[in-house]
Amino acid sequence: MVEDLTQEEILQVLQNNSLGRLGLHDGNKTYVIPTNYVYDGKSILCHAVEGTKIHIMRQYPAVCFEVEEITDFTSWCSILAHGCYQELTEERDRYHAMKNFIDHRLHIKIPHSILETTRGANVPIKNNMERPIIYRIIITELTGKMERK
Fold first, then answer.
1. Given this model, what pLDDT does residue 101 score?
2. Domain extent for 6
3. pTM of this prediction?
4. How many domains does one find in the chain?
């Protein structure tokens, strides 16, 4: 039987995962894009190189974000977050977002001295690599469903 997730269960799914699907619309077409993310307790943090996805969200900032955990066809949960795209342009915000992303992805704490050496750097990490666009999805609505055996 399909049931609603509690608010606590919804937040747990967001916290425990790092891959979701970003939904956006350009006025004509709807896109669903797999995206790495970190939930920081308030918003969903992501990064990308500048391209179609970023251009669309700058023009149409209303987005949705879906995360799911699937064991099998009768044991799953799925959450849907509606929100608003916000690009992080202040160096301090970018620094904290990337630190959060690195900490979550690697499950380790990066020494402050290492992070400090990259602060404010506009130099690409590798040749031909663009500086990433770092953004958050400010959550306006969270819902979730589950089915368990």
1. 83
2. 2-147
3. 0.82
4. 1
Decide the pairing of beta strands 75-87 and 19-25.
Answer: unpaired
Residue with tokens 């949960």: 77
Cβ atoms of residues 67 and 17 within 8 Å: yes
C-beta separation of 1 from 147 below 8 A: yes
Largest CA distance in the chain: 53
pLDDT tens across 24-75, in order? 999 999 999 999 999 999 999 999 999 999 999 999 999 999 999 999 989 9
Q: Go through 61-76 and write b for each residue having 16 or more CB atoms within 10 A of its CB, e for each that does not.
A: bebbbebbeeeeeeee
What are the residue ranges of helices labelled H in 17-109?
A: 52-59, 91-106
Mean pLDDT of the 73-78 span: 93
pLDDT at 31: 97
d(C-alpha 118, C-alpha 84), whole Å: 28
Domain of residue 103, CATH code:
2.30.110.10
